[in-house]
Structure formats: structure tokens, C-alpha cells
Design a protein that fits this description.
Blueprint (H helix, E strand, L loop, with lengths): L1 H8 L8 E5 L1 H12 L6 E5 L17 H4 L1 H8 L7 E7 L14 H16 L7 E6 L6 H16 L2
Parallel strand pairs: 1-2, 2-3, 3-4
Helix pairs in contact: 4-5
Length: 157
């Protein structure tokens, strides 16, 4: 889509290119941005599925540290993509709490990813935005409420 938009917009170079997605689309947007930071400079993730794993979470030998695919990909990555990151999660998206700490998994998984990005020093602290809505659910209505904030963050007023 990038070459098509560039060609049809009659623009040599975009000032900024952002990609965003919700749920598994957010996971995908993050993965695409991480792998194509030469074309994309901002990524928005609405309720990203960072729980995505290679083993059932109820398996006796399941481990957050070993089985969450995207987090392991980042841990192993030597890339330092020049990206800016925007994350949104809602506290009422689910009831799952693998580690029984009182924080639902979508929040825990996203915070773990943010902490990992920070630990890798791939961007300045101000290049990561994290929004959490105490009443946010895993649906388009909740994501739609956050979309204006993302668009302003990504492209300005």
C-alpha cells in the first residue's frame, strides 16, 4: 500500500508514516513497523494481542518469559528501529489474569512490552505514549474514543 499511496498522492517523501491496528491487528501493525522502520516511523496499538504465544497459557510448562512470541522476538532482536510508539489498553477488556496480580493480561502484556522497548534503548522515553482507560473494553467503541488522541499524536492538529 505504501508505494501505491506514494505514487497516487504525488508525493516524493511523506513527512511521517504511521500504521495502527486493534487487537491482533495491533500486534500485526507493531510487527510490521518493527520490521519496516525504514518506511514507517510511528505505530499505534489499540489493545494489542501481545499475549500471543507458542504454547497454551494453561500448560504446566508455560512461562510468560519464554512463550510470548512478540516479546521474545524483541528480546532476541538486535534492531534499533527509529520508531515512536503509541499504546492503548482498557481495564475492562477481559478478566484473564495469568499471574494473579490483579491486573488483566492485556494491560500486563502491553506494559511488559513497553518496559522491554525502554530497556533496549531504541527510542527516547518521550517517544512512547501509553494510555489506559479504566472503563475501556475490547471493542470498536472504546478504540474509536481513543482514535482522535492517536491521530493528533501521530500527525498533529
Amino acid at each position: 500500500m505504501y508505494p501505491f499511496a506514494k505514487k497516487n498522492a504525488g508525493v516524493r517523501k511523506f513527512k511521517t508514516v504511521a500504521i495502527a491496528g486493534c487487537s491482533q491487528g495491533g500486534l500485526s501493525a507493531f510487527d510490521i513497523a518493527w520490521n519496516r522502520a525504514d518506511k514507517i516511523d510511528k505505530v499505534g496499538v489499540f489493545s494489542g494481542s501481545f499475549w500471543w504465544r507458542d504454547k497454551d497459557g494453561k500448560a504446566a510448562d508455560y512461562s510468560d518469559d519464554k512463550n510470548r512470541i512478540m516479546l521474545n522476538k524483541l528480546k532476541a532482536s538486535r534492531k534499533k528501529p527509529a520508531l515512536k510508539y503509541w499504546f492503548y489498553v482498557g481495564d475492562k477488556e477481559e478478566e484473564s489474569d495469568r499471574d494473579k496480580d490483579g491486573i488483566i493480561d492485556v494491560v500486563d502484556d502491553t506494559k511488559d512490552l513497553v518496559d522491554l522497548i525502554k530497556s533496549k534503548n531504541v527510542c527516547l522515553p518521550d517517544d512512547i505514549s501509553f494510555a489506559e482507560d479504566a472503563n475501556g473494553k475490547h471493542d470498536y467503541q472504546a478504540w474509536g474514543k481513543q482514535l482522535p488522541a492517536f491521530l493528533i499524536w501521530a500527525f498533529g492538529k
